[in-house]
Design a protein that fits this description.
Elements (H helix, E strand, L loop, with lengths): L1 E2 L1 H16 L3 H21 L6 E6 L3 E3 L4 E9 L5 E9 L9 E6 L4 E8 L5 E13 L5 E16 L8 H12 L12 E7 L11 H7 L3 E6 L5 E7 L13 H18 L3 E7 L3 E5 L7 H9 L13 H9 L4 E6 L4 H16 L3 E7 L3 H6 L5 H27 L2 E5 L1 H17 L4
Parallel strand pairs: 3-9, 12-13, 12-15, 15-16, 16-17
Antiparallel strand pairs: 1-9, 2-4, 4-7, 5-6, 5-8, 8-9, 10-11, 13-14
Helix pairs in contact: 1-2, 3-5, 3-11, 5-6, 5-11, 8-10
């Protein structure tokens, strides 16, 4: 049983009346009246046990978009339901109106729409609906929490999609599908054309030149149907927030842009997320759209506060393909984690594959490095300088071993990684 604001107001009015007209009989009469009124109101309230609640939710929504969750309230009680209903969404679901007042006649149904504006990617849940049923006078209410489980998958926003048109134009130029022909790119023969000043003399076709009595060159196009394996690190280093976004989310954005671009380039894309075990996997052989499968796979990923086991990578890549592939590792360039883990297994990957290591750099380090004046600021600047030097040393070590490194701020990582893919494709290294 719950009492309402009306009951409290009547009790206060009664207290004032007792003060004005004191007497034990008056107090007892007033208390008896209130108790009788509340009891009668409680008896007349519809039982929340007789309320059936059905939840209707969309399967998914993109982060930064709005979704509507609908509750269908069916009143099987014999009297009208006057209630306050609260949908128990977790705070990150961003429910704008989770508590609403409603009235449902006996034997009928009403709907209740809850506006959701998710604040983070992942699986958001609501496990119950609380119902407080009031009597006709609104003095007392019955309350019950009904189990009504529901969940909605919040997909990554894919903000880096805005870079896709320019990257696709560049890709079409590499394929020779536009009027711009990239000379000498790729390794698959495309066609013959007349020599233009500036062409690589190594591309001259001497036989065709002799037949036509004019200098003719061969044009090339990038190879297609290559394998691109994207490995996303979900260990503790991915939990760091850079520019108010987890490093993992930045890596997801880069993954989506690279995967769509590579698929448009005719290459086969495989994805895996790992720390000490494989957390998610998307293979290139699925019949569904690659992007939809990717966003569904990465949506529930969360950073795991454990160290990454890089020794999993060679076996995981080998399980995907035995062919020479482009392996893109999206991880952190923390000196300790890289030197103790990645450096040990990188030679095994480089024996057969082209390896690119992509990482998010914190632009705040550059700001701290330029600080000064006070003693604390000088110490912070020194620490930032030390961190940047360690990062540069790790990058240099990886490059010396034969890997490519993309180390960029959050908003630049996705397009720069896409540029690296296009550069490797243009030079025929895939």
């Amino acid at each position: 049983m719950a009492v309402s604001g009306r009951f409290v107001l009547l009790a206060l009015l009664g207290s004032v009346a007792v003060v004005l007209y004191p007497g034990a009989v008056s107090i007892l009469l007033w208390l008896a009246f209130l108790a009788a009124a509340a009891g009668l109101d409680l008896l007349l309230a519809a039982s929340p046990r007789r309320l059936r609640v059905e939840r209707r939710l969309p399967d998914s929504v993109r982060l930064s978009e709005t979704a509507v969750g609908t509750l269908v309230l069916r009143n099987d009680a014999g009297r009208r339901l006057r209630a306050v209903v609260r949908d128990g969404w977790q705070p990150s679901a961003g429910a704008r109106n989770p508590q609403q007042r409603t009235a449902v006649p006996a034997g009928e149904a009403r709907t209740m729409d809850v506006l959701l504006e998710p604040a983070r990617r992942g699986i958001l849940t609501s496990g119950h609906v609380a119902v407080r049923s009031f009597g006709p006078m609104g003095l007392a209410a019955r309350q019950r929490t009904l189990p009504v489980p529901g969940e909605i998958r919040v997909l990554p926003p894919f903000h880096s999609k805005r870079h896709l048109p320019s990257k696709l134009r560049r890709l079409r130029e590499l394929d020779g599908n536009t009027s711009v022909q990239l000379r000498g790119a790729g390794t698959e023969f495309d066609s013959l054309r007349e020599y233009i000043r500036g062409d690589d003399v190594r591309s001259i076709d001497w036989r065709a030149t002799a037949r036509r009595q004019d200098t003719v060159v061969r044009t090339w196009r990038p190879e297609r149907d290559r394998r691109v394996v994207i490995a996303l690190d979900t260990s503790r280093t991915s939990a760091a927030r850079i520019e108010d976004e987890p490093r993992l989310d930045t890596g997801i954005e880069a993954t989506l842009l690279l995967a769509v671009l590579a698929r448009s380039g005719g290459d086969r894309v495989d994805f895996l997320a790992f720390d000490r075990r494989i957390r998610a996997r998307v293979d290139s052989g699925g019949r569904e759209n690659l992007l939809s499968r990717l966003v569904s796979a990465v949506a529930p990923l969360e950073p795991e506060l454990i160290e990454a086991d890089f020794s999993l990578l060679p076996g995981a890549v080998q399980a995907v393909t035995a062919r020479r592939s482009l392996v893109v590792l999206i991880s952190a360039l923390d000196s300790g984690a890289v030197e103790e883990g990645l450096v040990q297994v990188l030679p095994r990957l480089l024996e057969k594959h082209v390896v690119v290591v992509a990482s998010v750099r914190d632009p705040g380090l550059d700001e701290l490095r330029s600080g000064g004046g006070t003693t604390p600021a000088v110490f912070r600047a020194a620490a930032a300088e030390r961190a940047l030097l360690d990062r540069a040393a790790v990058s240099a070590q990886l490059r010396s071993m034969g890997a490519e490194v993309v180390d960029e701020p959050p908003h630049e990582l996705a397009p720069k990684l896409a540029d690296m893919y296009l550069r490797l494709k243009a030079t025929g290294r895939l």
